[in-house]
Automatic annotation (TrEMBL):
Domain Formamidopyrimidine-DNA glycosylase catalytic residue range list: 2-113
PANTHER family, per database record: FORMAMIDOPYRIMIDINE-DNA GLYCOSYLASE
Gene: ga14842
Organism whose genome encodes this protein: Eleusine coracana subsp. coracana
Location of the region described as Disordered in the Swiss-Prot/TrEMBL record: 229-323
Keyword Cell cycle: no
UniProt similarity note: Belongs to the FPG family.
Entry keywords, A to Z: DNA damage, DNA repair, DNA-binding, Glycosidase, Hydrolase, Lyase, Multifunctional enzyme
Catalytic reaction list: Hydrolysis of DNA containing ring-opened 7-methylguanine residues, releasing 2,6-diamino-4-hydroxy-5-(N-methyl)formamidopyrimidine
Cited InterPro entries: Fpg-like_C, FPG_cat, FPG_N, H2TH_FPG, Ribosomal_uS13-like_H2TH
Basic and acidic residues bias: start-end ranges: 263-291
Listed GO CC annotations: nucleus
Protein name stated in the entry: Formamidopyrimidine-DNA glycosylase catalytic domain-containing protein
Domain of life: Eukaryota
Length: 323
């Protein structure tokens, strides 16, 4: 899509070579992009033949030929960025009423006619304004810087007949194409969508201000948190094959386990009976000089086992004694 400098260069070429010439033949291209309003292609071609070109006119990004007799087209557009620029005061006041992103506003031909995608990116870069900054939130200084950049960029581009090779090397224009990572004057270029168009800007120089800056910080923190969570999940997935799975205990399961242990403890206590020593038996033992209580069943079993062992070896010991 040609922008103001390209259209102005074409107008100047027509003015230099075609004024006073008669149109001998006219062909309207069979293309859906070509629209002839209010008249068919054949009728338009016939109406142009035989007419003399009196002047080449331009308004914004639109160009038409003024002929020696009608019909010839007429259009109504916004102020021309080059020949009908708004004053700084009017420009600032107008921006203060616009509640849309500044890049989208610059592309609106009813606001300023002649600014296209690359010019919008260039003037915003040179005036250090973020493409998504709301127009009404711009400071007076930013409005003045933008107004100045528009005039300088458009005027220079027209003066060199839109020959991009002659654009200053420090312009963003030379580094914005292809959506590839690049740098301008040593600073990184990034691409976003603004005003429905791919937009090149330099984050280090073009920063959101005011409320939008705070919202951007929150958005960046949320994005950072999301990326960290994603990395943690990815790391966990990679570690699943390296470390054993942990047993997951829910609060309900933990409560049940505590209850089971408590019941087990109570049952154990109920099965253990505390027997108090028999006072009479104790006194009797004391009278007979016995300090220990009667042997338990286990002790008796052990005593029986020892006696049995002695009984087995007694006969052999007796024979040895006789010899």
């Amino acid at each position: 899509m040609p922008e103001l400098p390209e259209v102005e260069a074409a107008r100047r070429a027509l003015e230099a070579h075609c004024l006073g010439r008669r149109i001998a033949r006219c062909v309207v291209a069979d293309d859906d992009k070509v629209v002839v309003a209010g008249v068919g292609r054949v009728a338009f071609e016939r109406a142009m033949v035989g007419k003399t070109i009196v002047a080449a006119r331009r308004r914004g990004k639109n160009l038409w030929l003024h002929l020696d007799a009608p019909p010839f087209p007429s259009f109504q557009f916004g102020p021309d960025a080059l020949f009908e620029p708004m004053s700084v005061a009017n420009f600032s006041d107008s921006l203060g009423k616009k509640k849309i992103g500044i890049k989208a506003l610059l592309l609106d031909q009813s606001f300023i006619s002649g600014i296209g995608n690359w010019i919008a990116d260039e003037v915003l870069y040179q005036s250090r304004i973020h493409p998504l900054q709301i127009a009404s939130s711009l400071s007076r200084d930013s409005c003045e810087a933008l107004h100045k950049s528009i005039l300088e960029v458009v005027t220079y581009a027209v003066e060199v007949d839109a020959d991009c090779d002659r654009f200053p090397e420090e312009w963003l224009f030379h580094h914005r194409w292809g959506k590839k990572p690049g740098k301008v004057n040593g600073k990184k270029i990034e691409f976003i969508t603004a005003g429905g168009r791919t937009t090149a800007y330099v984050p280090q120089l073009q920063k959101l201000t005011g409320v939008q800056s705070s919202k951007m910080e929150v958005a960046n923190l949320e994005q950072l948190a999301s990326s960290v969570d994603a990395e943690d999940k990815e790391a966990d997935a990679e570690d699943n094959g390296l470390k054993p799975k942990k047993r997951v205990i829910t609060s309900k399961a933990a409560s049940g386990a505590r209850k089971t242990r408590r019941n087990a403890g109570e049952n154990e206590k109920s099965n253990v009976k505390t027997t108090e020593p028999n006072k009479d038996a104790t006194d009797s033992n004391a009278e007979h000089g016995l300090d220990k209580p009667t042997s338990t069943a286990g002790e008796k079993s052990e005593q029986v086992t020892r006696r049995s062992s002695r009984n087995k070896v007694k006969p052999q010991a007796s024979k040895l004694g006789q010899r």
